[in-house]
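cache lookup: miss for this entity combination. No prior model stored, computing from scratch. Input as submitted by user K.M.:
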Amino acid sequence: MNNSKAIQVSGLTKYYGDLLAVDHISFEVPQGQVFGFLGPNGAGKTTTIRMLTGLTRPTEGNACVLGYDLATEITRIKKAIGVVPETSNLYDELSAWDNLVFMGQLYGVPRQERGERADALLRRFRLWEKRNTPFAKLSKGMKRALTVAAALVHCPQLVFLDEPTTGLDILSARSLRALIGQLRQEGVTVFLTTHYLEEAERLCDQIALIVKGRLVALDTVEGLKARVWGRATVEVTVGPSAEERLRFTAEDVVTALRLALAEAEQQRRPVLSVRTVGPTLEDAFIELTGLSAEVMLMEKGNQ
Amino acid sequence: MWQDDLRGITYIALKDLRAYYLKPPNISWGILFPFALILAFALRQPGEMRDLVPGLLGMTVLFGTTSMEAIVITFERRIGALERLMLAPVSLPALLLGKVVGGMAFGLVTTVAVLAVAVVGLGLWGINWPLLILALVLSATAFSALGAFVSVAVREVFEAQTLANFIRFPMVFLCGVFVPLAAMPSGLQLVARCLPLTYAVEVLREALAGATFWTAGADLLALGAFAVVLFALAARTLATRLD
């Protein structure tokens, strides 16, 4: 095991009956990085997290998490990781403070320390005023924040965040993104799945793309974008009254511009402005996953 | 690792008691239910109450341990909170044992309330107390393991209740609670010998009559065996959910 790797995955595979959910994926996550694990719905993201956190057994393959073997040392792994599942699943009947203290108890945090950790996390997540409120009575954003806090009570070295900002309001999502940045600064490795490509672009050091259970790309954000640099995108704004932006991508700028101008001509609308656009992570995502823009829109609609 | 498991069992049981079992509506239901039964029998057959005490105690342990526990486990599975426990550094059997201990504690509290009223109200003397305590603890363990097995075998809360009732009510009529085993047809006696409540009622009857551990040994062993087998089945069923 290489100590500089937080996660080493080798040929990890999961079948549910005849359904192949994850198909022989292999990758490594360096320590201290924010690692994005992206893909469309049903691609195998959550199944991969469930395997790496001991919630489901791989059908084939193995992994090392923080130097511990997934097949034989799962309890050691569980002690050293924090997990924020897709759903906020703390205990409705317990207060915010009691939920955090219970998590500290389960992970063996000493009595005095767990109280201090619970206090500190409640303040950090701006939940101090709600410390005596039952989990069931918190707002959706507060529940999400408390679920993240619960994953941090035992100071894990690696945190799995499964769609952490889905369903959050803008402010809560922003503060959660800031927290991910802080965790990275503190040397905590973050394994992040998200539908928000802008979020991944802003936060992740490396991104793996998974489609239909198979890993189709693994690179830095810039590396992924560079893979679609060979194509050019031109954006024209057409008028006159209701301004609309038309985007055309082609092998080169001139061809893309011709396509844009032809479309404006066909619509009999004056061109107000023209600009070339560099590839975004979304462009790379569409190109590398083979998904159409329409599917991407549907994916976003499901968020 | 055993320290992790011991800690897990303790805190999971305490959390369940606090979050679910010790809520006033649950305590009042847990105590009212057996007392309603006792009152019904007391009004119907006031002269035979002494004979019915072992059966009523057995029923109280059975319903006290299984009713809430089946709801708690299925409810937590449904909302994903059980998965939260499965993420903690606690083995699956220890997690389940924490749930079983919570159910046992609730069942024993309600049974002790019934026992206290029976002892004082009916003037029961000459009880072999150590045997009675062991009998109640073993019965609560076996029935709580049964409750755990039922709740991990199904998906929904109502399914757990249906399956639990499907097992509990035939037991009440077959296991010597109302009708002595010897008075039943031999075929039904054979069925009764395959059910844990039979041994619970027998050993409780022996303890209340002041019998020795030696006399009650076979019943205690049978209850212990039921506890182990039912717990193993529950743990195995929960483990298959990981595949």
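stored under new cache key. Chain B has a mean pLDDT of 88.
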